[in-house]
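Same chain as my last thread, 56 residues:
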Amino acid sequence: MKILHILKTEPDETVRELMEATADEEAKTVPLFEGDVDWTGLVDEIFAADKVICWW
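reply #2:
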């Protein structure tokens, strides 16, 4: 299952642990807090993923 993690802010330890618990070899992370986001690419990633998890 392809999981996409979208991070609005830098994750704390709890969020990191939860991300690792749901991660597999196809998991991908998009850190929005780092700036310079490829929004078109992000929309493509959202539609390509089986599951999208947004972290605040």
